[in-house]
Amino acid sequence: MTKWILSALLLIAAQTAQGQLSQENFGIYVTLTSDYRFRGVSQTLNDPALQAGVDLQLPSGFFAGVWASNVDFFSNSFRSGPRDVEVDLYAGYSMEFHDDWSSVFSAVFYSYPGSSVDYDYAEVSAGLNYRDLTTLQIGYSNDALARGKPALNYELGVQYPLATSWEIGGILGYFDTSRLFDRSYAYWNVGLSRTWPRLVVDLRFHDTDDDAVALFRSYAGSRWVLSLSVPVM
Predict the structure, then answer these.
(1) Structural domain boundaries, residue 57
(2) What is d(CA 137, CA 130) in angstroms, rounded to the nearest whole number?
(3) Which of 65, 168, 179, 187 is geometrically suited to a Cys-Cys bond with 149, CB 3.0 to 4.6 A?
């Protein structure tokens, strides 16, 4: 799967070199966030994170990208070896099949370079989108969280534009980790964002159920997160 994602990135890079992608199809951004939360759980021990990403998209609906962030995972009985950096490679295809509906198929490879232990794993997902307002997505990994067992993740996302440059939205998710741990958990968030030409500000409240707190202690549960994103180009 990693080779497939890398091939997708190379394909879009070739299209860019040939001048077939405009600036609207290509973007680089940097984000400073007060906490990196993934499915309701902090990946930085509730501390800030500096993140960067490159997004590429073909007019046909094909897309790919690279995203990176600092991470800081607490010690556990399953693995040893610190993880300081996460680098994600992703690629997919978005297809409209009705005036109001579209589908999205994607794959993500989560990697942690520099660690003495192999934490890398991949996930595929399929989603259904209604007018860019509501998205239902299901993700599957046969090696979830690099623990050698499968898991499914379900997410329902909603976003709604308010006044000019303002948007409210949220996510309700359920991570079926029953094969990995002794329980699964639910998570959700709701937030408000404001977009300027050179800055995006997002204030979001994250929370989880008690099962997540039992699994991840104080790194789950309720948390306000403030993020500032700056497009580089």
Answers:
(1) 2-231
(2) 12
(3) 179
CA distances from 128 to 4, 94, 102, 152, 205 (A): 23, 10, 6, 16, 25
Using the 8-state DSSP alphabet, how is residue 218 labeled? G
Closest CA to 121 of 80, 85, 149: 149
Looking at the DSSP assignment, which residues form a beta bridge with residue 150?
A: none
| CA–CA dist 27, 154 (Å, integer) | 28
The CATH number given to whatever domain includes residue 135 is 2.40.160.40
pTM of the full predicted structure? Answer: 0.89
Give the chain's radius of gyration (CA, Å). 18
Strands 199-208 and 185-196: antiparallel
Give which of 61, 205, 67 is closest to 127, Cα–Cα.
Answer: 61
Amino acid found at 158: V
| Alpha helix ranges (H) inside the chain | 2-17, 210-216
Which of the 8 DSSP states describes residue 142? T
Per-residue pLDDT tens, the chain, 233 aa: give them.
Answer: 555 555 555 555 555 555 555 566 888 999 999 999 999 999 999 999 999 999 998 888 999 999 999 999 755 545 556 789 999 999 999 999 888 999 999 999 999 998 888 899 999 999 999 999 999 999 999 999 999 999 999 999 999 999 889 999 999 999 999 999 999 999 999 999 999 999 999 999 999 999 999 999 999 999 999 999 999 87
Contact at 8 Å (CB) between 161 and 183?
no
